[in-house]
Amino acid sequence: MVAVLVDSETTADAPADDLSCLSWLWRHRVPIGGTTAMLPDLLRAHSIEEVVVTLPVATEKQHEQIRQVVEICEEAGVPVTISSPLFDRVNARPIVRREGDGRYALSFDRADRHPLERATKRTMDIAGALLALSVFALPMLVIAILIKITSPRGPVFFVQERCGLRHRRFRMLKFRTMVPNAETMRVELAAQNEMDGPVFKIRNDPRVTPVGRILRKLSLDELPQLFNVLRGDMSLVGPRPPLPSEVAEYEPWMRRRLTVPPGLTCTWQVSGRNGISFEQWMRMDLEYIDTWSIWRDIALLLRTIPAVLSTRGAS
């Protein structure tokens, strides 16, 4: 360290937390004093690897001082780091963006991914969905025929509005597993809901058809969502897309699960599904978001296969 430049108006009171730092500087004989006006001379006289700015970002004068330091270092080809206590408690990753008018903006997004990571995940989604559709094309045709034969009054597919990335709504596809008037019957069955929170699930739901019960047990009713993955509404791996009515009852911290694309499978699906409380489910999704990686997606996809075959927690 060559020197510490401190403008006179900021030296009046040193915070108690800075005493150890000042003591270290004194022991190592680092000059303390002077103003930022000395910076050009110091850059010329010494081999400086980096300049760290710790001015508080509070007043217009301090903004101007920081701007001058950056310009001086830019001209000299020396990197600058701006350290600020404003965001010490923020867990979201800071990202520098350039606005349309040429100004820079600092944005924070806990779920933001590098463009290459997003492209890799999307490529994996498309390739995986196409592969799965080619493998399950014939079984899906058989399922469609069975649904139509055993329950001719209703459609083959059940289309339902769900919330996706950033609360955007989309039409999610499933094979129909219930009687045609299932939605109207839900009000009558509300008291039998076995899940806590805003999710509605009954283990022996009387609305489910015999074929539908088998499809649900093996999670085959979810296969049409591969088309949602191809369209970009969903991903292979991600939190399950909720109903708008469920989102309306979310606590504020739960809404962060909508900051990534919803998926066919996630931690909840491989950890017991309906045997897990609603709050645990939400926390699992947030933990997935915070620790996401391509390798974790692959691991979850591999774990989904035995989870589906075991039918644990499925209903």
Description:
By secondary structure, the protein is α/β, with parallel strands linked by helices. It has 2 domains: 8-89, 2-Layer Sandwich (60s Ribosomal Protein L30, Chain: A); 115-310, no CATH class. 40% of the residues lie in helices and 12% in strands. It is built from 10 helices and 8 strands. The protein has helices at residues 19-27, 39-45, 60-76, 115-150, 182-189, 210-217, 225-231, 244-247, 278-290, 294-310, and strands at 51-53, 80-82, 93-98, 104-109, 157-163, 169-175, 235-237, 263-265. The longest helix has 36 residues, at 115-150. 21% of the residues are buried. Residues 8-17 have low confidence and may be disordered.
Q: What is this entry, summarized?
A:
With 315 residues, the chain is an alpha/beta fold.
What is the fold's blueprint, element by element?
Blueprint: H1 19-27, H2 39-45, E1 51-53, H3 60-76, E2 80-82, E3 93-98, E4 104-109, H4 115-150, E5 157-163, E6 169-175, H5 182-189, H6 210-217, H7 225-231, E7 235-237, H8 244-247, E8 263-265, H9 278-290, H10 294-310
Parallel strand pairs: 1-2, 7-8
Antiparallel strand pairs: 3-4, 5-6
Beta fraction: 5-15%
C-alpha termini separation: 65 Å
Average pLDDT confidence is 82
Low-confidence stretches: 8-17
Order of helices and strands: HHEHEEEHEEHHHEHEHH
Number of strand elements: 8
Share of residues in helices: 40-55%
> Taking strands numbered 1, 2, ... along the chain, how are they ordered across the largest sheet?
1-2
Output the number of helix runs. 10
Gyration radius, to the nearest Å?
28 Å
Structural class determined from secondary elements: alpha/beta
When the domains are counted, the total is 2
Sum up the overall morphology in one term: elongated
Give a short account of the largest sheet.
2 strands, parallel
